[in-house]
């Protein structure tokens, strides 16, 4: 016997990926519902190789009798409908920022804090972290176990797919416009993104950081360790899929490059590809469509007492969003909702 699974935001970048990954990983489903806003009702979305689902209206959907909802609409939509689904007994795995920092909602990366899933009982909601946080904490976890991380400095190079389908279209249209000498229109992004980069993701906060940077700070502490200091600079780059991060880590104890490499190689969800020769490291185009968090360029940071630096790339739509949510659903089904 399988589960009744609803995918909320089924027509978006992440929603379509969720449907794809549920099918790919043979998640035991009895029935799948594709839900979205009224304007998408009747549209068709693929479920795996050979099934097509017709999109239903989220606002009218009754979650009674449904087991799990994988939710990735806008934060406001989630604020309204995730509690409604949870109240009907359907456990929600929510990919928006709305519930992440609420103390009674667990924020989970299965390779890092799977035990936190148990906290779903309080509200019926589990939050999926931000994409840039997920890939970083997967890589930080084995290093934290090795030498106790005290401080992290991260700069991100985030693909446009993190901003949704319209953001991907904007990069495509601007690139084309430049080639045919047409007008370059910036609507979704605050500046031209084609052949450029933008050191702002999400809105500004009072202290001059952006909300995306704040998310990396507070989410890392909630998932991994509240005592880790994090400084993040988040940058949008003209790449379609996969986020990259340059990460510098300070430890309480000395950690050698060899020890770190060995721990990262043994860590679940991490692939180390680091040959120290031209091209001997993964880039976004090679990691798109992959499940792992790829680590390379592991080296000593000689500017601090116990420091290492490395390069980290992952598919932001998969491990950074849909795959992480499906992995949570798998643990939830196996350990808490067994049928
Ligand atoms: C971005 N972090 O890349 C967002 C997506 N969750 O814009």
Question: What's the topology here?
Answer:
Blueprint: E1 3-8, H1 13-24, E2 29-36, E3 44-47, E4 51-54, E5 56-57, E6 68-71, H2 75-87, E7 91-94, H3 120-123, E8 125-127, H4 131-147, E9 149-158, H5 165-179, H6 211-223, E10 229-236, E11 243-251, H7 257-266, E12 270-272, H8 284-287, E13 293-300, E14 307-314, H9 318-335
Bound molecules: 3-amino-D-alanine (2RA).
Active site: 131, 243
Function: Catalyzes the NADPH-dependent formation of L-aspartate-semialdehyde (L-ASA) by the reductive dephosphorylation of L-aspartyl-4-phosphate.
Binding site for NADP(+): 11-14, 39-40, 161-162, 316
Task: Summarize the structure in words.
The protein is α/β, with parallel strands linked by helices and 339 residues long. The chain folds into two domains: 3-129 and 321-335, Rossmann fold; 132-315, Dihydrodipicolinate Reductase, domain 2 (2-Layer Sandwich), CATH 3.30.360. 31% of the residues lie in helices and 24% in strands. It contains nine helices and 14 strands. The chain has helices at 13-24, 75-87, 120-123, 131-147, 165-179, 211-223, 257-266, 284-287, 318-335; strands at 3-8, 29-36, 44-47, 51-54, 56-57, 68-71, 91-94, 125-127, 149-158, 229-236, 243-251, 270-272, 293-300, 307-314. The strands form three sheets. The chain has a six-stranded parallel β-sheet, with helices on both faces. The protein has a six-stranded mixed β-sheet with strand order 10-9-11-14-13-12. The mean pLDDT is 97. The structure holds 3-amino-D-alanine (2RA). Keywords: Amino-acid biosynthesis, Diaminopimelate biosynthesis, Lysine biosynthesis, Methionine biosynthesis, NADP, Oxidoreductase, Threonine biosynthesis. Phosphate binds at residue 100. It is an enzyme of class 1 (oxidoreductase). Catalyzes the NADPH-dependent formation of L-aspartate-semialdehyde (L-ASA) by the reductive dephosphorylation of L-aspartyl-4-phosphate. It comes from Phaeospirillum tilakii.
